[in-house]
Design a protein that fits this description.
Its main location: membrane. This protein has 17 helices and 14 strands. The strands form two sheets. It has an eight-stranded parallel β-sheet with strand order 4-2-3-1-5-6-7-8, with helices on both faces. It is globular and about 65 Å long. About 7% of the residues have low confidence.
């Protein structure tokens, strides 16, 4: 009888696999996503080695599945997988880029124009191809990784160098991922219909229900964004691939031969759109269980019987970088609700709002614990995909003030689901903030919609984590599955 119960465990151990995760450190949110994938796969009982750019791999009794994460990191702090060994190597070049200055300008600059798209693409075009060149010329590390004979590679689609790296080390089975929601950069190369009449582009501030003029803009930007990406990013990568691989290396064809494309989307949160079985939704894998809070936070939240509102603009966009008039707008807003306790993630110890008894300014907060507390009434956020997903999992209404990139689209997602109000960052006033919160507090439909969305996500037949594990194991066995490829 004991043998019957132990047999599945013995079989699982016997067929454990060795996986390489290629995770260049493009931004904190991208690294969190890839690190979470590594942790989930490791948590099934496998040992993880996370390799940060090029020091020789040290093998230490790797008896089960091994996941190597190859990570090339500029000077931006970000978490590593908690269950992975980390081996690092610094960049071979310096990147002259003022990240905090770039982010502080987001409070003022308009980010939904073609010019804003060019800025984002230029940043990628400056950094990622140079990074790829540094990776592919490290022949010593490439030879070491080639000898490891990995069963599978996992790489994020935003940086095509991962697929080129797999080619160099003879890994012919691989999965592509995207830490953003399902978007045209993934679907178009796979031949999946992305009809601009109802599928909003990644960087557009539209929902799937667009006016005639919005559909025209969406269509025109679908063309302009493809041209800009080709000129600014793709051509730079082509030169790197010709230098280190071969002249006819086709990165788009390489991407099409991915076993699956795993995206950071949740089908109940994102806009409905055409997909194929090659697309695997794993949105929510990074949502943490509510953190245990220290006694000060617990007392603060428990005592706020009239409600709590949490204000945070993420790990990179800093509240201290707001223009003075924006800070004053928030203080005026806080003053209108003396019965509500506001927790504001604010990174500087200054006198802004110091006269308010209902305001607590903190440089860091246990976000998952706060979002899960029964006294929380609303979350004011910038609309980063991780924060939006965590909001949906927590069943909390939101006020979204999107700043740049995909955040406008993310805001439209939660607005469509009936759980959020959107404020244009160019219209942050005490009045606009007050009106939005009063609407959420007065109208119970926001809270009901948030709770319904939470339960849809939590009670889905197969969780994002289960999908990640099962499809990864399936890809190791079968590799590229042409049964799933469209003829187009």
């Amino acid at each position: 009888m004991l043998t019957i119960f132990l047999l599945p465990l013995l079989i699982h151990t016997a067929i454990s696999y060795k996986i390489l995760i290629y995770a260049p450190h493009f931004s904190r949110s991208h690294l969190i996503f890839m690190s979470t994938i590594a942790d989930i796969l490791a948590h099934t009982g496998h040992e993880v080695v996370k390799k940060r750019a090029g020091i020789s791999v040290i093998r230490q009794n790797l008896s089960l599945q091994t996941i190597y994460s190859l990570e090339f990191a500029p000077n931006v702090t970000a978490p590593n997988p908690k269950e992975a060994k980390v081996i690092t190597k610094p960049l071979s070049f310096e990147l002259n880029f003022d990240l905090l200055g770039f982010m502080s300008r987001m409070w003022d600059e308009r980010q939904t124009t073609v010019f804003a798209l060019i800025k984002i693409m230029r940043l990628m075009g400056r950094f990622l191809p140079r990074l790829c060149d540094s990776v592919l010329e490290d022949t010593a590390t490439i030879e070491q990784f080639r000898k490891e004979k990995f069963d599978l590679g996992i790489s994020e689609h935003i940086d095509p160098c991962g697929l080129a790296y797999f080619e160099k080390i003879n890994v012919d089975k691989y999965i592509s991922t995207d830490s953003l929601c399902l978007n045209e950069d993934v679907t178009v190369p796979l031949g999946i219909d992305s009809n601009p009449s109802f599928v909003p582009l990644l960087y557009n501030p539209f929902s799937d229900e667009m006016s005639y003029w919005e559909r025209v803009q969406n269509f025109m930007r679908s063309i302009s964004s493809a041209i800009i990406r080709h000129i600014v990013v793709d051509l730079a990568f082509s030169g790197v691939f010709r230098k280190h691989l071969r002249s006819d290396f086709d990165i788009k064809e390489k991407f099409r031969k991915s076993a699956f494309a795993m995206v950071n989307s949740d089908e109940y949160l994102d806009f409905p759109r055409p997909v194929t079985h090659k697309i695997v939704y794993i949105g929510g894998i990074g949502v943490k269980k509510p953190e245990s809070m220290n006694s000060d936070y617990q007392k603060l939240l428990d005592s706020a019987t009239e409600g709590v509102v949490y204000v945070s603009f993420g790990s990179i966009l800093r509240s201290e970088g707001m223009p003075t008039e924006t800070k004053e707008a928030f203080v005026s807003f806080f003053r209108k609700f003396p019965q509500i306790k506001f927790i504001w993630k604010y990174e500087k110890n200054d006198t802004i709002g110091s006269d308010l008894n209902n305001l607590v300014k903190v440089s860091w907060a246990p976000q998952s614990g706060i979002l899960a507390h029964q006294n929380l009434k609303a979350f004011i956020t910038h609309g980063g995909l991780n924060s939006i997903t965590e909001t949906a999992h927590s069943g909390v209404p939101a006020i979204v003030i999107p700043m740049f990139a995909d955040q406008m689209r993310n805001a439209k997602m939660v607005e469509k689901r009936g759980i959020a109000r959107i404020i244009d960052k160019r219209n942050i006033t005490g009045e606009s903030l007050t009106e939005a919160l009063e609407e959420i507090l007065r109208n119970d439909r926001y809270n009901k919609a948030a709770k319904r969305l939470q339960q849809l996500i939590l009670q889905k037949p197969f969780s994002a984590t289960e999908r990640l594990i099962k499809y990864t194991e399936h890809a190791v066995v079968f590799g590229h599955i042409d049964n799933l490829d469209l003829a187009s």
